[in-house]
Specification:
Elements lengths: L19 E7 L22 E2 L5 E2 L9 E2 L1 E4 L21 E3 L3 E2 L3 H8 L11 H6 L15 E10 L7 E10 L3 H4 L3 E8 L7 H14 L7 E7 L3 E9 L2 H13 L9 H13 L7 E8 L10 H13 L2 E8 L5 H10 L3 E5 L2 H15 L2 E12 L4 E6 L1 E6 L2 E7 L31 E7 L3 E8 L6 H4 L3 E11 L5 E9 L4 E2 L5 E4 L2 H24 L3 H21 L10 H16 L3
Parallel strand pairs: 1-9, 7-15, 10-11, 10-13, 13-14, 14-15
Antiparallel strand pairs: 1-21, 2-3, 4-8, 5-23, 6-9, 6-20, 8-9, 8-25, 11-12, 16-19, 16-20, 16-22, 17-21, 18-19, 22-23, 24-25
Amino acid sequence: MRQHRQRQIWASTTVWAASLTLLLVFSGCGSEAGMGSALESSSASDKSSAYPNGGTGAADAGGGSYASDGASTQGGGSSNTSGPATGASDKDSGIGFKPGGAQDINYFRQLVAQGTVPAPTDMTIEGWLNEKDTKLPSASPDRTIVLHALAGVVKSAGMDTPDAVIQLGFNSAKSLAQVKAKVALTLVIDRSGSMKGDKLAYVKQGLHALLDSLPADTRLALVSFSSDVLTNWGPTVYDASSHKAELDAVIDALVAVGGTNLHGGLEAGAQHCMSAGAEYPFRRVILLSDGQPTAGVTNANLIIKLATDVKAKGVSVSTVGVGNGFNPTLMIGIAQQGDGTAWFLKDAAHAKDVFLNDLETMLLPVAKDLWIKFKLAKGWKVDKIYGFDWVEKEGEVIITGPSKGQDGGPTPVDPNEEPTDPDTGTPDEDKVALPTLFASKKNGMIMVSLLAPANVDGALVNGLLLSTISYGYTIAKVETKESFEVPVKVFGVIQIPDGGWAYFADPIVRRSYALLRAGLALLEATKTAGEGDKVSALAALDAALLVLDDQIKEVPESVDLAPGMPDAIDLLEDLKTLLDKLP
């Protein structure tokens, strides 16, 4: 990490954002909910909580909270428990989960490295959070998917409303062999002239790496497109011993020339998936392109609509953007509406990493029809859910799926419409947050921004039942339904030096909050710089740097809970240096 000047977080009330934040984190190393000290501890009874690399922690505010899910099957009742946390694990175990949509902001990052000020549309908050890796303690082995809840609330002096965080982690102690279902997969490869040179070379290297680790019994097809569309291989059940050499040769023979019929390639790939038999209940397309259609259907909205249409027929679409000509809006939109993930390849080494460490497991479905709904304490309201649409009815917030362009705000809904209760039978499409829950080696987040009651104080927050979160899903392999309910409480509030008050159940929560502030600052800085307000842009970056520096300073180095924190500081400072050069 570079040498960064020290900053004092409590010196400025601008450090803590005026909005309230709820973080839903799909974590591959989740826990029976850790607790630890990111600020200071006054509870000796919690000091046995173990952290990575020999560190220990105690609950902030003298006694943190823990919320563990109470499980029920087939929509039955649930029970809730609370107790001391076990602390974050130093080693990932079991299965992690990630939401769909953007999985990184590497395109944004590359523009900054090249000396170009990005537009705010060149990154998403969900992409920023998903590229990080949140570590939580191991999952309980007694259920397929375990949810963990951790809370944090902060109010600096001078703020009318506090910031708050509820971090939910989803993971499983099950092995993939126990829970994964068969997949029909089509690789759709752009071989147009714009992919010439390094772009197609990156894709080829990544595809060769993927072939080394495809799940057993995968029904595979390979489609390529330029101005035309070709099926180069399959579809057939892939066996490495019989097929790898042949398919490697097919990949190596691809030559970049002609236009970009992206719509035609996606359509052909989806058709191959849809032709799979009933023994392949999960069908997936991976589209690799620089995302600049020039042939066939070129309208971006129509291409995204195609992803929506094939999703309705049971085919999910993931995208991998390649090179400096990458169109992030189109490729992320395809993934969001296609129940898939979106990546950007920046070089050959990164291509191999994405295909081996990300897409390898993201091909493996564990559950389907995941629904999430929650109620909040009186006076607390949802503002935005980044990357997801949602509705609110009778005080209950329901996440209804990947964003369709509402900018995180509530989805327009008929107030007279009666929603289907997912506990009673077939899930209502409007209530499914994620049609498919895929395994992951890394762990992503869904972030929900809330508005807190005005002038709420620490005494009112202490002991507060901030939320009750319900969720459920169908296990992919055996079609069994499970549902859970999780209470999220705040136990203990401490005073902070600036005269405010704070509570964090775990350093993990504080780390996630710091990363969130950094991502929001990147968006705000690019937006205000684009409007000609350089002063406000630099102020946003400075405020986020305060938060990040304090996170690193306050949480012991032995607590490995902040991967990506030095990188986040470097990116903020690189953008600041770039903006400083503007007139």
